[in-house]
Input
Amino acid sequence: MIDPRNLATLPLPFLIDTHADTPQRLLEDESAAPWDFTSSPLGTGHLNLAAARAGNLAAEFFAIWVDPAQYPPAQYVPRSLALIDAVLEQVRRRPNDLALCLTPADITTAHASGKFAILLGLEGGHSIVNSLAQLRAYHALGVRYMTLTWANSNDWAESSTDLRNPTPDAAVPPGLTSFGLSVIAEMNRLGMMIDVSHVSSQTLADVLAVTRAPVLASHSCARALCDSPRNLTDDQLRAIAANGGAVMVNFYSAFVDETYRLALIALKPERERAHAALAAKYDAQPIPFHLSNRIDRDFAARIPRPPLTSLINHFDHIISVAGIDHVGIGTDFDGISALPEGIDSAADLPKIIAALATRGHSAAALEKILSANLLRVFTTNLGCPMSGSLIA
Output
């Protein structure tokens, strides 16, 4: 058993986080000067280069996310491209500190050379605007996973928090449409990981029925411990494990702790009024993310933060249900308004390792949680054998 008091002296593997919304800060931050990942202060955020290095975080998937409530469909692609460009510019300006990574080998090479590994994930299938050509274009720019839905259902996939509840004559059925199946086939062909965080139960079942590669839930928790529809049931955890996929634990307090979730729901009417008042000031123009996030942070601060044990319980539960080969870390840093006690930024990630070690997880188990499981899923997707179409 690892003694958590000796973690600083152990040769622990580097840590990979599969989801952070940091790109929003690169375009519109609350600081007066343009925000820089390598040199700007952390401020109210969770992740910058200094915090990453302090926390043994070696690689981060930056989420390219367009809020469909703020941007019309005609702006999904331009906004996505602006976010991608902002990330790529960080790499271009700081080649000695940062490396854009496209493969698992790139991650290990970057780490060996002392560079922070940056990867791209597209959050929300609405941003491909129903076009396989656009999906391929994002892949060519470096996107290596796509979250099929965000909190909104799109024209071809159903979300867990925006269920269509269709009638028999509905234009779009639940789960994946025929075009959605073609998206899965093309992602398999490209070697792009299929991210099933945010999707509905039927969408997940449809994906698992046809994909030829293991899936990723880039930032999800266990519903048995916190009853959010964003979390995964035990049956879903077992199904993802049977597929060979991995579930990366989200750090958002409302997905981690049921008491916190219910307290936040009680504040929802008041919080929605605050958002409506902010929206009125912008007269239908996109609201800067840091302003809407500030409202959410202010309301979240009214509720006591859940203990760190609530978060660690999700790791243990997923391990007990799905197995040690199917869990990892997907913090949702810079996209969430509240974290458990003791976790304020990426610099605090060693506390997760220490807590897991305290519960008896071996060095080999920790390596799987921190990086090996993600690297396996990533590698398997790149080698996905495609023979024929998934569409009948």
